[in-house]
Amino acid sequence: MTKSILVTGGTKGIGRAIIQRFAEEGFDVFTCSRHQEDLEELKSDFQSRFPTQNINVFSADLSKKDQVISFSEEVKLLGIPDVIINNTGVFFPGSIHSEPDGNFELMMHTNLFSAYYLTRAFTGEMIARKSGHIFSIGSIAGLTAYANGGSYAISKWAMLGFTKCLREELKNYNIKVTSVLPGATYTASWEGVDIPEERFMKSTDVAESVWAAYNLSPYSVVEEIVIRPQLGDL
Fold first, then answer.
1. pLDDT at position 123, please?
2. Domain ranges across the chain
3. pLDDT under 70: residue ranges of the chain
4. Distance CA 184, CA 205 (A)
């Protein structure tokens, strides 16, 4: 039976690299984005590369609870994914004391609340069948405090706590839970910066790490993946 993976924010960067990696192993895909044109481009590319597999794309803004719930319900009409990747996120630099009003709410809703509500939508079925693997894409900003991290860092610290709690809740149901904590990865978030591309990690390396963690036997789980550029954090 064909397995499936749900990746939020799957049209670019780490999310897209994960879709590509799991598709190479025969997985069908569910994904979403706020931008319909990006979804159509991804779908066309996927169908040309993997013509015998299915990709289901949905337009959704996961900073809004009602759209998280609607997206989840649409996916459930088609099936319960074997793997969930909570990847949706936004980043705006700034200090807690001076960042623009609204940054906190936007990043918490997008980076944390989306993962919370999406995960809740599928855990009942995963518990009933006693299988599944949930990954949360966090950040090293959720491990190390730094100036100008502001609300983004707060959301990623909270994401790590959420994932740790989820691991404890689901381990007796044979459901694996993994935190992925990447350092600076060359994605759209870094476009325009005056830093050599080779100073960054590749999104494909993050995807390979996720695949490796998923591919362990049922007797082991990788609880946390910390992956940094070879020369250290930026």
1. 98
2. 4-227
3. 189
4. 12
Cβ 211 vs Cβ 25: under 8 Å: yes
Mapping DSSP to helix (H, G, I), strand (E, B) and coil, where does residue 176 land?
strand
Helix axes of 114-129 and 65-76: crossing angle, nearest 10 degrees = 30
Where do we find the tokens 């060359």?
186
117's tokens: 């509500």
Whose tokens are 């405090």? That residue is 145
Q: What percent of the chain has pLDDT over 70?
A: 99
Burial level of 180, CB count in 10 A (0-12/13-18/19+)? buried
DSSP 14-49: HHHHHHHHHHTTT-EEEEEES-HHHHHHHHHHHHHH
Architecture of domain 4-227: 3-Layer(aba) Sandwich (3.40)
- The pTM (predicted TM-score) of the whole model is 0.95
